Amino acid sequence: MPAVSVMFPVYNCENTYLRKAIESILNQSFDDFELIIFDDGSTTDVKRVIDEYRKIDSRIVYVREKIHHGLAYGLNKMVELAQGKYLARMDADDISTPERLEKEFLFLEEHPDYGFVGGNLLLIDDEDRVYGARKYPKKPGEKDFLRFQPYAHPTIMFRKSILSMDNPYGSPEKPRRGEDYELFMNLTADGIRGYNLQEDLLYYRETINSYKRRTLTDQMAEVTIRWNGFKKMGLNPWREIGYVIKPIAVWMVPDKIAFNIRNGSQA
Fold it and tell me: Is residue 50 a contact partner of residue 22, using CB atoms and an 8 Å limit?
């Protein structure tokens, strides 16, 4: 059994980015892992790229769906399939730093009172140029969820035992964005503590195009997630109504301005 299962969802990603993301995991200083690549019905030739790496590294577990279901569906499936004691997240357009898995594994081994661990981000553009950084609080509390999500989901390593509930990333019948934000609020409400290493663990690819993916329906779904999550954590959503409806205000701001605002402050 591997110590860590890396959950790596793929859907029609750019092949150059995909190669860099895969190699950043295969070249980790920590090597006791399986890399579960879940191809959620891609219509591009990502399978060809993945097959190249499967031929040279037996740690890769490739799962392919014929139709596209959505991110939450794939993440739930990977949690079910994972053999590791710990589950690490990875996206197909990001790059993990070489010692990321080792640092997170050692932290969880040495700190059994924490259910998951993550870290900070370096922001990169389409050409892999670093243009900024995103820092997260070391020990987030309930109020840290008001302004922004206080964990960088692509950097997280979980104890598998804390994701034993059915569909930890939400119902596959009703997929929606914000599944990670909802999960972290649910875990916090249940008394499960998370920790952010004050180190840059991931090169996170974010451009103005990232903001164009969000629709008003997405933002309304996040309003619901915030309302319910704040209540679960013991916060009064009426008192925090400005934070509850923040996704609507963000949707109304032009993409370029929203991008500049977010990357000029913590996200």
Answer: yes
pLDDT tens profile 32-86: 999 999 999 999 999 999 999 999 999 999 999 999 998 999 999 999 999 999 9
Closest CA to 10 of 33, 42, 34: 42
The length of the chain is 267
> Coil, strand or helix: which one is 9?
strand
3-state SS assignment for residue 141 = coil
Residue indicated by tokens 């490739």: 62
Going from the N-terminus, what domains does the chain have, and what CATH number goes with each? 4-262 (3.90.550.10)
Q: Is the pLDDT of residue 144 over 50?
A: yes
Contact 73, 175 (CB under 8 A): yes
Close Cβ partners of 183 (under 8 Å, ≥ 6 residues apart) = 168, 169, 170
